[in-house]
Amino acid sequence: MHKIIAFYKFCKIQDLEKLQASLKKDFKKLGIFGTIIIGKEGINGTISGTGINLDKAIRLLKSHSEIVNLDKKISFSKKPPFIRLKIKIKDEIVTMGIEGISPIKQSGSYIDSDQWNALIESNNTILIDTRNNYEYAIGTFKKSINPETSNFKEFPKWLKNQKFSENDKKHKTIAMFCTGGIRCEKASAFMKNEGFKNVYQLKGGILKYLENTDTKDSLWQGECFVFDDRVSVKHDLTEGKYDLCHGCRMPITQEDKLSSYYVKGVSCPNCVNLKTPLQLQRYKTRQKQINIAKTRNSHHLGPKIS
């Protein structure tokens, strides 16, 4: 069984290259795989490994003076969720593309899982799912609004197109959520900047809610998309029923895989008509290489550190 920890923290990090080099060195020794993004606004990542070494990895993260009170969520997988370690430096740890939006300076108020149901069942609450359209499609909270975005950078435009009144901004309660908490925290900072007064975010996101909430008490419907090889998780955080089309990165069901449009590693019903012949051929070549690697009992893409 593979242990997985998702984490993030908005905090000021000055020497990004030094932190990147330090984490690469330490995590390589511990056999940690996954993806970590660092930027001047903080750190965001999901990593996997043995339980003991993951605990050591988290302690190493916290040993860096800038990274305190790290928000983390724990889950497990029967198969390796990652095959390499990637530690990247980016301008934003979650990309919104709007200058001056800083959760370090201001953001919505945290709401713990045990208070979330009461908040979102109130008639005065506007419940917003800040994730992408394909994530919303496989699971969300009852009565949540889907902004129908294909990436997080589209959220500000969606919000401005809603034309919320000044009365809404002053008196309505805004409740926001995402997978692990990072997108709704940045979205809440943007909403505060736009004049919304009563903005709340689910602390730890959907993953922490599922971890802390009994199924019988849950208002969650469906599965939760995750950004690793599990694709989705059920309410008990075990691996879900969805697979991933490696042509378009969309979650697909077993029914989708029975379609004549589905070619493993190449296309699915969602994207078969959106790809050029050159793209389809490139994906076919890639999948052939993956199949050859599997017959040799090796990984096509890794593991390696970048």
Structure commentary:
The radius of gyration is 20 Å and the shape is globular. 36% of the residues are buried. It has helices at 16-30, 51-63, 113-120, 133-138, 155-161, 166-171, 182-193, 205-212, 254-257, 277-295, and strands spanning 2-10, 33-39, 42-49, 71-77, 85-89, 109-111, 125-129, 139-141, 173-177, 198-202, 220-222, 224-225, 232-233, 243-244, 251-252. It starts with a strand and ends in an 11-residue tail after the last helix. The mean pLDDT is 91. The chain is built from 10 helices and 15 strands. The strands form 5 sheets. Strands 4-1-3-2-5 form a 5-stranded mixed β-sheet. The chain has a 4-stranded parallel β-sheet with strand order 6-10-9-7. Strands 8-11 form a two-stranded antiparallel sheet. With 306 residues, the chain is an alpha/beta fold. Among the domains are: 2-89, Alpha-Beta Plaits, CATH 3.30.70.100; 109-222, Oxidized Rhodanese, domain 1, CATH 3.40.250.10. A hairpin with a 6-residue loop joins strand 14 and strand 15.
